[in-house]
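User: Last request for today: this protein with glutamine, please.
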Amino acid sequence: MNTTKYIFVTGGVSSSLGKGIIAASLAKLLQARGYRVTIQKLDPYINVDPGTLNPYEHGECYVTDDGAETDLDLGHYERFLNVSTSQANNVTTGRIYQSVIQKERRGEFLGKTVQVIPHITNEIKERIQLLGNTGDYDIVITEIGGTVGDIESLPYIESVRQLKWELGDDNALVIHLTLVPYLSAAGELKTKPTQHSVKTLMESGIRADILVCRTEHELSDDLKTKLALFCNVKKDAVIQSIDASTIYDVPNMMLREGLDTVTLNKLNLKDAKEPDLDRWNQFLQRHKNPKGKVRIGLIGKYVELQDSYKSILESFIHAGAENEVKVEVVSIHSEHIDTNTIATTLSGLDGILVAPGFGERGIEGKIEAVRYARENNLPFLGICLGMQMAVIEYSRNILGIKDANSTEMSESTQNPVIDLMEDQKSVTNKGGTMRLGAWECELKEGSIVGGVYNSKIIEERHRHRYEYNNDYREQLENAGMAATGINPDTGLVEIVEIPSHPWFVGVQYHPEYKSTVANPHPLFVAFVKAAHEHAKKK
Ligand code: GLN
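Assistant: Here's the final one, the structure of the complex with glutamine:
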């Protein structure tokens, strides 16, 4: 018999309350108590996946091992739990409808009228139970994107209602995350928005089992009593979630509030052990007590929105803790870099990271930033587009190929040192068609990466269409840019280094997707270490 328990996390009052972090923190606590846990995110928008979204819309697109382009919350899940997610962990309305419509076209509904209830809701319920039915998890946490009351969330809320009824109270529960705002003029915390939000949920037939209240000030005992009474929950199920200085504090805060114990009681899980958070707390200890500091320039074109480079920023936090240094990331807009001002814009940095990206905007600034790092012996890490810019820079300024470019930026260039991959040439659809997910790469002995990783063959996640053009490999290698990581099946160059430079690495893949609290990514750890050595020399 399948005994998987289901936890649903809904949100009310406002968006951006941090449902993903609450879900990840609860999952962490349950995992620390010995349960096998995974988290899933259901997104109510109509895009089939977030891969086609501009980062300004929803922040970074996170990529899983199996090549799913997903919501950035999956990054938090992996970073907290150190467990891989997959396509099944992120489902959008677009995907649900796509699947139902395909079934209709195949005649699978046997002449029936296809409707939101039951066909869309059945598809949603199936997707929710897919992970539980694998038998790999004791508990599945499903985060429902959006805010209760939104038109587009309705089929999800209805599916939760049905599932909760079908599975029974011991096997499913609903956590509702709301906001308790502080009105400074009145000097008071206000419970009314929470009451209304719980009422909206009730109108859809769902009673919240646990309330998590996001607040800027402590909730008094009286206020918790009031919320419990008006919102139909037990007082120990009113959980305060006060603003934290780092998201990594939230699991311990939830532990103190007893979110895990109320959850376990309600799900009738009685044999839980005490949570083992040793590794987590060691990380926090190092993160909060740095012995030094490094300043790293993050050169990108979506820098106005911090969420665009979420996984990179988190990777620096993990790598900083590992090195016991504080990593100050200085976001620099690549469109603001030009040859006249570059020395002032980039002065005082201990390392430069040129970020992933798409399209022509801002790339000349990225190329100049690479040149600055190369000429000034500054530790450099180029990721995906950043690696491609490093190859272009070297070709232009060292090989003297003035028009070296990527065919992404100039289709007609005579010197496409970065070129569209062969199997991309026939691709016309934009969604889900890049080279995605984990691919193998063989590392060259004696190189930086050869020393950084523990094994000769690594697997890293990709998301790109263009690639290092092997026609230029001999010239580049002879001129001092080494290819130190090669895909063993295709011969594609995935990593470049400059051995005469103290620390210069460009990678075609995205190491940032695999950095977790328990396993900081070795490349980020080594980059921060190199930057720290640079800082000490100053
Ligand atoms: N635009 C480049 C490509 O498609 C790089 C992609 C990226 O940085 N993720 O190859």
